[in-house]
Design goal:
416 residues; alpha/beta; Aspartate Aminotransferase, domain 1; Aspartate Aminotransferase, domain 2; eight-stranded mixed beta sheet; 13 helices; 38% helix; binds pyridoxal-5'-phosphate
């Protein structure tokens, strides 16, 4: 096990090898960086919105400007601003006229709101397994999942991974199925030369409080189809907009877009650095840059792969966790130890087929990879990816510390 090799005893706190979870000194005593960052441009926008009264108005220039910006950024004709990403997916389904008797294909490992939205419009979710390496919807299983009732596919890019959109798009075109592309976790990412969200008939974004672009709450959808937008307007406009994004939210979002590309680049570069630091760590394999070498990854693959086809976004950085490499420590115990060390590493989503009653969905098979994801995925939260090299080193250090402690426990058990 080579993780101990990457532990540098010259680093501060190396003498206190007790885990923070057992009362030792955390590697990062201040905890992970908070989000959102202090941002002078947002402060200016807030002050302006205060001065001109737009903070308290129904309508004004900020939502119009945000709308225009999203239209240009995604080269789509129509944008609908919404109160959340979840609402955007619901409206997308309604705009496509998905309803009772219809089926919607989606990954068995996805944001729960996507599953619940399908139920909310009266349709049936059909769950598809994930790719065992990338953790994304396995597009090779779409054909197995399709039925005469299939109306749409929801494709979510998760944790720095990217769904194979060219293959998914070709499948959808072949059977005239609609695609909702959920880019909530990667605004501004590039997927096979197209900006995330534009492979779908409808793309969606989230501006929730933890997201890369945040207004606390909020979302958007974009499409070229005016009929879809017309149906959405009929549903939402009831003398007032029932799913609105406010002027104040739009005001604070606008300056964040100006730095999105630069920040996406910085996050991606830091992911490359971090993976390089963790390259000898067994038992963790990243969604990005993973290869076929069992449980290890070679981070050097990352820039090569991404430069060729994708520039993902990093709301979270996903890892497969192999407890056997950590003395049987469960994924949840591992995440808890890392949290105590001040690192924002958390369990991933629950798998949908394991958390909802069987009568509510159809599944193509036993969904073995999504079942594994339920207990084996870890996600690193993004704010640290805008940090310094030292911040990243602390992640590697914390991982080493936990690993060393597990190894020592193992040795002690053997001696007794
Ligand atoms: C993939 C995905 N889709 C949709 C959403 C929903 O976004 P919101 O929180 O704005 O409702 C999320 C939120 O985390 C998400 O991760």
């Amino acid at each position: 096990m080579s993780t101990a090799a990457s532990y540098n005893p010259a680093l501060p706190h190396a003498t206190d090898c007790r885990l923070a979870v057992h009362g030792g000194r955390p590697i990062q005593p201040e905890g992970p960086p908070t989000w959102p960052l202090l941002d002078a441009a947002v402060e200016t926008a807030l002050n302006r919105a205060f001065a001109d009264g737009s903070w308290g108005k129904y309508h004004g220039s900020h939502c119009l400007a945000l709308n225009e910006m999203l239209v240009t950024m995604h080269s789509r004709e129509h944008v609908v601003l919404t109160c959340s990403g979840t609402a955007a997916v619901e409206l997308a389904l309604r705009g496509l006229r998905v309803g009772t008797g219809d089926e919607v294909l989606l990954s068995a490992y996805d944001f729960e709101g996507n599953f619940k939205n399908v139920l909310a419009v009266g349709a049936k979710p059909v769950l598809i397994d994930i790719d065992p390496q990338t953790g994304q919807l396995d597009v090779t299983q779409l054909e197995l999942a399709r039925s005469p009732q299939t109306k749409a596919i929801i494709a979510s890019h998760l944790h720095g991974g990217v769904v194979d959109m060219p293959a998914l798009r070709a499948f959808a075109n072949q059977y005239q199925l609609a695609v909702i592309e959920d880019a909530a976790q990667m605004p501004g990412a590039m997927i096979h030369g197209r900006i995330a969200g534009t492979w779908g008939d409808i793309g969606i974004l989230s501006f929730g409080g933890s997201k890369l672009l945040t207004s606390g709450r909020g979302g958007a959808l974009f499409t070229n189809d005016s009929t879809i937008v017309q149906r959405i307007r009929l549903h939402t406009q009831r003398g007032n907009d029932t799913y609105p994004l406010s002027e104040l939210q739009a005001a604070v979002l606008l300056p964040q877009f100006e730095r999105l590309t630069e920040r996406n680049r910085r996050r991606a570069a830091n992911v490359g650095l971090l993976l390089e630091m963790l390259r000898d760590t067994k038992g963790l394999s990243s969604f990005v840059g993973s290869n076929d070498c069992g449980n290890s990854f070679k981070s050097l693959d990352f820039p090569i792969v991404t430069a060729r086809v994708n520039q993902p976004g990093f709301y979270k950085l996903g890892f497969w966790y192999d407890s056997a490499q950590f003395g049987g420590l469960s994924r949840d115990q591992f995440a808890c130890s890392l949290r105590a060390e001040g690192i924002a590493l958390d369990p991933g989503f629950r798998a949908l087929h394991l958390t909802h009653s069987k009568g509510r969905f159809r599944a193509v098979n036993d969904l073995p990879n999504a079942s594994r994801a339920d207990t084996s995925l870890l996600v690193l939260h993004h704010p640290v990816l805008l940090g310094s090299e030292n911040d990243l080193r602390q992640i590697a250090e914390a991982l080493s510390k936990v690993t060393r402690s597990v190894c020592q426990d193992e040795l002690q058990k053997r001696h007794h």
